[in-house]
Amino acid sequence: MVVMMKGILIVLLVFLLGNVILLYLLAPRLSGRRRVHPFFGVKWAHRGLHDIKKGIPENSIPAFQAAIEAGYGIELDVHLTKDGKLVVFHDDDFRRICGEKGKVEETDYARMRTYRLSRTGEKIPLLSEVLRLVDGKVPLLIEVKLPSADTEVCRRLDEELQGYRGKYMVQSFNSLVLRWMKKHRNEIPRGQLSENLTRKPDTTHYALRFCVKYLLSNCMCRPDFISYKWADRKNPGFLVNKKLFHAPVAAWTLHGEKDLRAAKRSFDMYIFELNDVGGKNPRL
């Protein structure tokens, strides 16, 4: 009986220790809710308020101007070019949007400037151009693209934002970005982007993607908020952050009025696309 009781006690201790370690890995920054609270309720226009039917491509100056005029926050993406320029562009390469070959990080901005967005006359904007346009009129949600382990893009972004007086937050799928922000710009609200990153069995860097998918990488960057894909919102790591730690949460990308209404009941911030709500402003 004594041996059995000792065995049960050991199992319980191992179970408790395992859960403590798990919670340590999953925990966001506990002061994050206070830091992100000023952004609660913001509706972020995903890559600007773009509408290609009207000749307004994603991540373009007209898309950002339209978002400003509608009073929406702006979600945008930032890459670092080969010659050290910060450009606003989503994909890692130009094929889908520009119909050109090459990767953003391997291309000089002078060449990139000759490309056009989605067969319109619009060019790939510099972040500095977008900052001048927005000028604090609406908040910004800046997604940092980091396809490698080189965090030079973080340093350049920090330099670019030093003189900016508008409200903004930073988010990324790559936890190295958030770790850099934690170390060098801890006062800026930072968010972990995630989704079902291991959906495909042949996924590269499977272990890293697994950790980000379940938010186990939170231990290295302690994000202030979690930005999770709406369709994958039942992820257990996300639910622990949301329900146990009460981390601020943003839903992306919302499609249609039904999603928008549902997200308002359980999320704090909403990233949407105008094209998906029939060309009408979402009612939240």
How would you describe this protein?
This is Glycerophosphodiester phosphodiesterase. Pfam families: GDPD (PF03009). Keywords: Membrane, Transmembrane, Transmembrane helix. GO terms for molecular function: phosphoric diester hydrolase activity. It comes from [Ruminococcus] lactaris. Strands 1-2-4-5-6-7-8-9 form an eight-stranded parallel barrel, surrounded by five helices. The chain is of the alpha/beta class and 284 residues long. The chain starts with a helix and ends in a 12-residue tail after the last strand. Strand 8, helix 12 and strand 9 form a beta-alpha-beta unit. The longest helix is centred in the N-terminal third of the chain and has 25 residues. The chain has a single domain, classed as Phosphatidylinositol (PI) phosphodiesterase (TIM Barrel, Alpha-Beta Barrel). The radius of gyration is 20 Å and the shape is globular. Helix content is 38%, strand content 16%. The protein is built from twelve helices and nine strands.
Give a short overview.
With about 280 residues, the chain is of the alpha/beta class. The protein has one domain: Phosphatidylinositol (PI) phosphodiesterase (TIM Barrel, Alpha-Beta Barrel).
Summary tags:
single chain; 284 residues; alpha/beta; TIM Barrel; 8-stranded parallel β-barrel; 12 helices; 9 strands; 16% strand; disordered C terminus; phosphoric diester hydrolase activity; transmembrane helix; PLC-like_Pdiesterase_TIM-brl; membrane
